[in-house]
Specification:
Blueprint (H helix, E strand, L loop, with lengths): L3 E8 L12 H5 L3 H11 L4 E5 H13 L5 H6 L2 E4 L22 H4 L2 E3 L2 H10 L5 E4 L2 H9 L5 E7 L19 E8 L5 E7 L3
Parallel strand pairs: 1-5, 1-6, 2-3, 2-5, 3-4
Antiparallel strand pairs: 6-8, 7-8
């Protein structure tokens, strides 16, 4: 059995984005030390999972990126969830066709259509943890169906007053255990929570 880890960047008042999915607040509080922590965390994963919309944004970006997170984002296998099915492009590259050697994992991504059943199968496999990437909507579905075993919140020192919470559609109380808390000089903090009774 392996666990599902949901990592999200959130505001101090608990939103993952503004009411219209704005993320401009994130750049105001960018912290390279947090990024180092995220890179280390990404290498712990055995598979990335995400919804179709997130996949369509991430694939062309990461396939050609020189960002420090590109290696784990490109090198680890992917599963994209789409109720109506989805066919990844044969390759992802820039206008010249340039692509990093490991980015073929985007084109070779597995496609899943049943969130609960397919994640249950992934969890039953041996291997390193499943790393979930949201989209607020995809994250809300994972939370609503009780699929998350561990939350990793990168909490930034900014309040936006209103926005979207990944817990907005939660049908019941979720008890969490604080596993670790890592503060950074910028005021950002990374809190890791395990879901109780998992």
């Amino acid at each position: 059995m392996r666990k599902l880890i949901l990592g999200m960047t959130v505001t101090a008042d608990g939103f993952v984005c503004g009411p219209n999915h704005e993320l401009d607040w994130f750049m105001r509080t960018k912290d390279d030390h947090v990024k180092d922590w995220i890179e280390k965390s990404l290498w712990e994963g055995g598979v990335h999972i995400m919804g179709r919309r997130t996949f369509e944004v991430m694939a062309p970006y990461w396939a050609t990126s020189t960002d420090q997170l590109a290696a784990p984002m490109n090198g680890i296998p992917k599963v994209v969830f789409s109720k109506g099915g989805f066919v990844p492009k044969a390759s992802y590259g820039d206008s010249t066709g340039a692509i990093s050697p490991s980015a073929s994992t985007w084109a070779d991504s597995a496609v899943a259509t049943d969130l609960v059943a397919d994640i249950t199968k992934l969890k039953q496999q041996d291997g390193k943890p499943i790393l979930a990437h949201g989209g607020a909507g995809f994250a809300q579905e994972l939370v609503k169906h009780g699929l998350v075993d561990e939350y990793r919140f990168s909490i930034h020192p900014v309040a936006i007053g209103r926005g979207i919470s990944i817990f907005a559609t939660t049908p019941h109380l979720i008890d969490l255990d604080l596993v670790s808390s890592t503060p950074f000089t910028s005021g950002a903090i990374v809190n890791v929570y395990a879901t109780k009774n998992k």
